[in-house]
Amino acid sequence: xxxxxxxxxxxxxxxxxxxxxxxxxxxMETILESVEILTTVNTDSVQPMKKHIPLExxxxxxxxxxxxxxxxxxxxxxxxxGYVKIYGKIFGDIEES
Amino acid sequence: MSESEKYDVIIGLEIHIQTNTKSKMFCxxxxxxFQKEPNTHVCPVCLGLPGALPVPNKRAIxxxxxxxxxTNCDIDKExxxxxxxxxxxxxxxxxxxxxxxxxxxxxxxxDLKNGNRVEIERIHQEEDVxxxxxxxxxxxxxxxxxxxxxxxxxxxxxxxxxxxSAQEAKEFATKIRQIxxxxxxxxxxxxxxxxxxxxxxxxxxxxxxxxKDGKILPIGDYKLNSKVEVKNIGSITAVEKAxxxxxxRLVDDIENGKEIIQQTRGWNAEKGVTEFQRSKETAxxxxxxxxxxxxxxxxxxxxxxxxxxEIVELPDEKTERYISSWGIxxxxxxxxxxxxxxxxxFENLQKVLSxxxxxxxxxxxxxxxxxxxxxxxxxxxxxTVSEMDIDITELALLILxxxxxxxxxxxxxxxxxxxxxxxxxxxxxIENLKQAKNDTSGDIDNIVEECIVQNPKAVEDxxxxxxxxxxxxxxxxxxxxxxxxxPNEVRNILIEKLKR
Lengths: 97, 500
Hints:
Chain A is an alpha+beta fold.
């Protein structure tokens, strides 16, 4: 199975060197080939295992407080006035929602 | 041949709407993020922390179904969610939970005034992303992220490419906003980002393409022009303006032999132009996959029935009823029914006036007052009719007093304004006027006599055949009675006296 690791890396905003690409490509191909074996199993008489829940049983729309601002920002490397601060140009060719 | 005769405009709309829930789509954090301290309505789920699991909000899904029912969609009996992957700081999980293969609502439509039908391909449920603002300091670019908006329920309405003009697009967006507000699905305020409109626009030569199964196909060897997507549209008016601008730009480019590339452009409201943002040479690669953390949600007939009961009479139906049952003009009926608040006010006023005036006259009188005095006060003061805080029974009393001839319409309007501006009591003011009228009614004869003596020129003019001067004299007398006399009565008395 052929896989374009550079494309996957670009989509994930990860820069990989030529060397890394050479190293990762066969590794990822092995993973996909292993998973591919599953598709050879005959599942004609097997019911889907996805569980169902009635709409009625879903969570009621009640709000409650979550984390404090201090707790939220604990994981951020940089912050400014209560915001998470991120350096770098982040506009890419991938769209917002 | 003019350009509009040569080309067809083809528009599809994507409309995102934040729905009115108290808690977020997949967690219990509060949704009201407007003007709140950043990063205070956040929990491990909407922050995308490892191990956190999404728990779908029942009300949000009901509101999505409600929008589907109000726009004639089929509702899926099983609800599936998918992951849409992309990397952007406003998306903490690295994917957005959305719907890809199956949307909750499909195959709906809304009919426009000109009879054209806008087909709705799908309405699906998803979650909003965080808010990011972009800055730079010392040539270093950075972004500030507030996750309060992350995970707010969002529905996306996608139309087929069957909208034929900027005006139609605007009407469709307006109708979606009206439905959202009438059914309390959303406040749908575009300025606040609660509703976002993104048109896809292309321009094709007439007769060279056809619309088939929701797709635009070329006829013969015609090569379709690429479509352009416009973002950053911040108001309903801008929907129309941005499309008009873009259509003209596309036609100019084609006429000048330039090739149109598929691209995303941003509307610049200040300059009134669209600006290039990025080209879309390759298809988006979102690596969709089924969301494994959410169960399949079963929707029953009882659910649909329960949700349907929230549907109230919508603007189009109201307009139709106002015209056919009460003879209101089409324009007035449309304006009044455009907001639920005004329609309710109008219907209540009509109800209170009905016993005295009869249903039709009550409706016409209520419509005249709303379209006239109330809207003009509303515009001047920048407040809505209900914010004026006028009791409907009191307003009805005022209208009926005028109809009985206790005072003129001008006087009634003046009194209403006075009461709204200075918080005076309408009933008490009407009583005062009645009293004043009783006090002067005996004097009317005298006042008319006096007026004749004081205005010999006008009297002379009338006698020599200038009928118009009677109006002048009536005005003088009305002034003298401070508007409490009945002008018709005054006119009759005056004519009687001038005959002598």
